Amino acid sequence: MSIRQKIRIGDLLVQNGIISEKQLETALATQKKTGTKLGNTLIELGYVSSQRFLEFLGEQLRIPYVDLKFYQYKAEIVRLLPETFSRRYRAIVLAEAPDHLLVGMADPTDIFAYDELVKILKRPVKLAVVRETDLLRTIDSVYRRTDEIVNIAEELGEELSQGDVNLADLLPDSQLEDAPVVRLLRSLFEDAVQVGASDIHIEPDEKVLRIRQRIDGVLQEQVMKEKRIAAALVSRLKLMSGLDISERRLPQDGRFNIKVRGRSVDVRLSTMPLQYGESVVMRLLDQSGGILSLDQVGMPDHLLRRFRALVTRPHGMVLVTGPTGSGKTTTLYAALNELNQAEKKIITVEDPVEYRLPRINQVQVHPRIGLTFASVLRAGLRQDPDVIMVGEMRDQETAEIGLRAAMTGHMVLSTLHTNDAVSTALRLLDMEAEGYVVASALNAVLAQRLVRRLCDSCTVEAEPDPRQASWLRATVGSKGTDLKFKKGTGCPNCNNTGYQGRIGIFELLEIDHALADALRRNDNAAFASAAHKQKGFQPLALCALKYAAEGTTSLDEVLRIAGQVEEFETDDEQVAAN
């Protein structure tokens, strides 16, 4: 069937028994309301899987279906089609032959797009059908802004070599949108958002400028020779954040909001004086995606049910713990999102307020004027709240007020920087909270980390190396020899890292009678022993090991997590349960 023939895909799906006539009628009615394409509507309604639909479409059009997750493309071939047209027509050049180009399209029935591609590429085109989500992800990966960033940096370096930068040209209300420093920052933010970076680091060295992006928890570096542009970048960013551009000796913190590719991104900025200039670190918070629900944070079903029951109790304290960047804030906001109902008064005390939530009373602390966690928490209790979220239990006073609030009819959510769930309750005792207060107020502790997912495109079987094998023997004994593991070899789809995306691992400890008794006696050893014997308790490392055995992550990631948490003993019953 030629692509120039009109294809009624819905009728063909019915004729081939893939969907029913009634399902087609429902999909067509839904399509009229949403305006989406019929194929997407059928997939969203669950009437057909995306892969089956695309395979069927390819069969009808007599063109191949290409799964981009497993396709080893070449970046230089993909770039034969400029990014603008690749995004506009949802198309990607997959291969080059002497007499034609193989082009993957999300909608190969789009005749107008096909004609335009032939004109742009100036070559005969043969089509393949590809999944749209994989297509967009591949476009984001291939059309990086690295070359553009280097070119603009060189242009800015040449401009600065002609004389000192005019700070007036860097003002936020300046009309010089084509100024190299503005274009450089724009490209830098676009590249970071495109690849899903959580942080941007700008670090001047003795002879070079390093720009690093944290992607899936790991920094990726770009080195530029134009070191002198660092001062111009920092000045512009300070002005955007409302900071003092003349102060270069002291650290400063600020924030600003930018629009990148139609997405609203909140940027938290921190500067710090270094030997060769000022370092800038920017945390990127994508506001356009909205707040995740508890169902979307990646918690296993059995833990999700328990955690949801804990946070919906009328009173008590639930703590979420882990190091910086472990997803604590995401989990807390997801819990608040679920609790956010008209009949509940919710107050948060944060530093900073990361996401704005309707109906919730969010307070930004300001220690310089005495607006501390403890003072806001004390005042907040007089506001008749049902739920209180404290950004972090930083000191004894805040912990004591939070615990007392949990005992007097409030649900208190907060975070602590601890290694695991067991050490969290003990940390409260170290902060001089009374054991009987902790035992009465604390409902549960959720510890979490983020581990990198293996890339689907380059995953292969992997045998444990001697170090990994030794850890397995010490952790799960002889059971470790029966487990199968995988690793990523690196490919264009994952930027040769072997990983793509991250997944959360969780450790939930509920305070039962045995744990509460140990807390009242301030018996740390008894508390730790009772915690590890608690039915259903699974330490973080074992949770990560389970994902590794399923092929979701690698043993390297498991050992990285295991090195972050305290050693634990695993009895035979627990190993058998896991």
* Content-based structural category: alpha/beta
SS summary, helix count: 23
Major sheet: 7 strands, mixed
What general form does the structure show?
A: globular
Helical coverage, percent range: 25-40%
Q: How are the strands of the biggest sheet laid out side by side? A: 12-11-13-14-10-15-18
Instruction: State mean pLDDT (0 to 100 scale).
Output: 84
Task: Put the structure in a nutshell.
By secondary structure, the protein is an alpha/beta fold. The chain has 23 helices and 18 strands.
Describe the structure.
- It is built from 23 helices and 18 strands.
- Residues 1-5, 162-177 and 566-578 have low confidence and may be disordered.
- Helix 19 (513-520) packs antiparallel against helix 20.
- By secondary structure, the chain is an alpha/beta fold.
- It is globular.
Describe this protein with a few key phrases.
single chain; 578 residues; alpha/beta; 6-stranded antiparallel β-sheet; 18 strands; 40% helix; globular; disordered C terminus
What's the helix and strand layout?
Layout: H1 9-15, H2 21-34, H3 38-44, H4 50-61, H5 75-78, H6 83-88, E1 91-97, E2 100-105, H7 111-121, E3 125-129, H8 132-142, H9 146-161, H10 180-194, E4 199-204, E5 209-215, E6 218-224, H11 229-241, E7 252-260, E8 263-274, E9 277-286, H12 301-311, E10 316-321, H13 328-339, E11 346-350, E12 361-364, H14 373-380, E13 387-390, H15 396-407, E14 411-416, H16 421-430, H17 435-441, E15 442-454, E16 459-462, H18 466-476, E17 485-488, E18 499-510, H19 513-520, H20 524-533, H21 540-549, H22 555-564, H23 572-577
Parallel strand pairs: 2-3, 10-14, 10-15, 11-12, 11-13, 13-14
Antiparallel strand pairs: 1-2, 4-5, 4-9, 5-6, 7-8, 8-9, 15-18, 16-17
Helix pairs in contact: 9-10, 14-15, 15-17, 17-19, 19-20, 21-22
